[in-house]
Amino acid sequence: MATASIGGLASGLNTADIISQLMSLEAVPQSKLKTQLATEQSRLSSYQQLNARLATLGSTSGSLATSSTTTGTWAALKATSSNTAVTVTATNAASPSAFTVNVGQTALSHQLAFTDAHAKTDVVTGAGTDVVLKRAGQADVTISTTGGTLEQVASAINAADKGVRATLVKVGTSGGTDQFRLLVESTTTGNSSAFDLTAADGSPLMGGTTVRAGRDASITIGGITATSATNTFTDVTPGVTITLGSAATGSADIAVTRDAATRSAAVKSLVSDINGMLDAIGTATAHNADAAKAGVLSGDSTLRGVASRLTTAVYPEDGTSLAPYGIQLDRYGKLTFDEAKFAAAYAADPDAVTAAITGPDGFAARVQAVATSASDKTSGTVTGAVNGRTAAITRLNKSIADWDDRLALRRTTLERQFTALETAMSQMQSQSSWLSSQLSSLTKSSE
């Protein structure tokens, strides 16, 4: 229990200041621990950031390392067309190829343009109020229009959502009233989109129709004709999809090639990531005679080892070099990437370039191995350093908390001692005053 000291009432001493100064001296070991804690926390933060970046580097390099022909960067293909009205895309299932597409015809929807014009409020369904949608080989669909007016017919067809849509087209006026013709169109294209629309008794509506028949799109490739109910030809060759514009005509030269630009960009990005990692490690471990200018992890051998292994990953185990593919170390210990040299090497021998970068022994895999061995959640060297710093911080926090208790007890002791001092001095002063008064009395009586 803390005891309040009597602030120099008897001694004249500023006991509160004296106790504070004594406590400052007592707290010097704890202050050193707090300084050490701050240093450890800064180091831990740096380790954690570097470890996270190494884990990311391991992930990105691992993705690049795969040489799969169906997924990932090295499976990407680029498809081009010489005709802007004929577009082409290629999935990873495609193979490099080149061919010419000749457009036969584009796909059309089936349309019925009704002959007679009417006001929106005119009844146009004959004796009944229903209309019937007919398709070859399918059951008739009866659509109720409520009152049978032109506007109700169009609304009912659209509301029924049976694969056709209706539009009213204004064609003039009669007696001051707007006149419209009904246009009904299939929502899909192709030969199979044909339909008819009649009154409930099967008779023609509104004077009959002008028909634009639906049709399939067609193209020829090397004399072979392909058709599609839409303007899109999916997997016309494995993994290749061709789409015709609505007004497409003529021919298109199609080329499906390995996407060298995507591969180059991926390798360039990996080189940039490695250099960023080397810069971060270099900054953190930088040595300087002036401690204030040194890195927070100055001289750390674990991180310097990681940096060394990252730079040596540029050299294949067979003693060759990646220089022919545009990847080298400069005199500053950083990687460089020559895009032009990479592009030339890829154009000359794409398989050799792919093998040098991908696969279990490729450049990307070597980088992944270094990054993973450092950042692995259980066995990583940098992860181990993180765990070690975390444990050290836990111990320091406990020691600081123990010192809080120890200093609180010491303060209580000092306060009690100074209170006892003031009490004793107060009693002595009282006794001195009493003795002085007694002596004074004796002197007076002797006179």
Number of strands: 17
SSE sequence, one letter per element: HHEEEEEEHEEEEEEEEEHHEEHHHH
Overall 3D form: elongated
Mean pLDDT: 89
Largest sheet: 5 strands, antiparallel
SSE-based structural type: alpha+beta
Strand order of the largest sheet: 1-15-3-11-12
Q: How many H/I helical runs? A: 9
Terminus-to-terminus distance:
56 Å
Low-confidence regions: none
* Share in helix: 40-55%
Into which percentage range does the β-strand content fall?
15-25%
Task: Summarize the model shown.
This protein has 447 residues and is α+β, with helices and mostly antiparallel strands. Helices cover 44% and strands 23% of the residues.
Task: Explain what the structure shows.
The radius of gyration is 45 Å and the shape is elongated. The protein contains 9 helices and 17 strands. The two termini are 56 Å apart. The mean pLDDT is 89. The longest helix has 66 residues, at 381-446. With 447 residues, the protein is an alpha+beta fold.
Give a topology summary.
Layout: H1 15-26, H2 28-65, E1 77-81, E2 86-90, E3 97-105, E4 109-114, E5 130-134, E6 141-144, H3 150-160, E7 164-174, E8 177-189, E9 196-199, E10 209-212, E11 217-221, E12 224-228, E13 232-237, E14 240-244, E15 251-258, H4 260-285, H5 301-312, E16 327-329, E17 335-337, H6 339-348, H7 350-357, H8 363-375, H9 381-446
Task: From the structure above, extract its key features.
single chain; 447 residues; alpha+beta; five-stranded antiparallel β-sheet; four-stranded antiparallel β-sheet; 9 helices; 44% helix; elongated
